[in-house]
Amino acid sequence: MRTHPRQRHTPPPPLYDQHMSETAGVREVKSAARTVELLELLAARGDRPARLQELADELGVPRSSMYALLQTLITRGWVRTDTTGSLYGIGIRTLLTGTSYLDSDPRVRLVRPYLDEASQALGETVHLARLDGTNVAYLATRESHEYLRTISRVGRRLPAHVGALGKALLAERSDTALPEGPYWALTPNTHTTRDSLTADLAEVRRRGYSIDREEGVLGIAGFGFALRYDTPAQDAISCSVPVARLTPEHEEEIVAVMEETRTRIESATTGGTVNWR
Q1: If you average pLDDT over every residue of the chain, what do you get?
Q2: Span 142-185, pLDDT tens digits
Q3: Do 148 and 230 reside in the same domain of the chain?
Q4: Distance between CA 169 and CA 33 in Å, rounded?
Q5: CA within 13 Å, CB half, 15
Q6: Same domain as 119, residue 52
Q7: Residues 54 and 119 in one domain
Q8: Whole-structure pTM value
Q9: Count of structural domains within the chain
Q10: Cis status, amide bond into 182, omega within 30 of 0
Q11: pLDDT exceeds cutoff 80 at 221
Q12: 3-state secondary structure of 30
């Protein structure tokens, strides 16, 4: 199995090529696109602030144009700078906007109480995530009091081929979009080839749920269940558990509780809400 060296805070490359936006024939507004690209770049850097020249070089824009854009975004709270004015990072307005996304999404509001019940019943950490291009984004998490892990925080993104949530959603789709690889590896157990991943996805479809055996985090197993209130499914729930306490009996319990939770969530989904795309 081939693995790739991983540098801290460096976002992994996409699993497969995909156009992330569609303009439906409308010409892209370059200034808006550049603003979004800058915010995404700063967000991807995590706790590594960037210098002006770094940002200008990365996005291929003149230094003067980048400086003007940064000052505009600083004024509005989307970007922050240090006391010297030479380092730049993501601003607080991004957090407030992200919180608004969660508060306004009817599916997230619907699922949260069921996550509470499942976590209490199992004593384990449960998640809700949504497919975001070639990644999955965590929308809600209920942490186990016995085991806390920051990798599952709300807003975190992971490659879709890594872990139970992403595999549950990839299994709802055709394998034809998957390339030959190699794919990015987070642990020695991550699927790094197309053949390995497609074989696993076939098992997910047969079984009805996905299993992650330390593929995203060493020492952690996961069980993922696609929520089929959309076609194909956009959201999934999962349960994460340390392998040290994953007995066959506990695994059966997890699957039973999570399958029941999925059924209850899908049954509770009603029409009359905005069908976001």
Answers
A1: 85
A2: 888 665 554 557 768 889 999 999 999 999 999 998 877 789 89
A3: yes
A4: 28
A5: 29
A6: no
A7: no
A8: 0.75
A9: 2
A10: yes
A11: yes
A12: helix
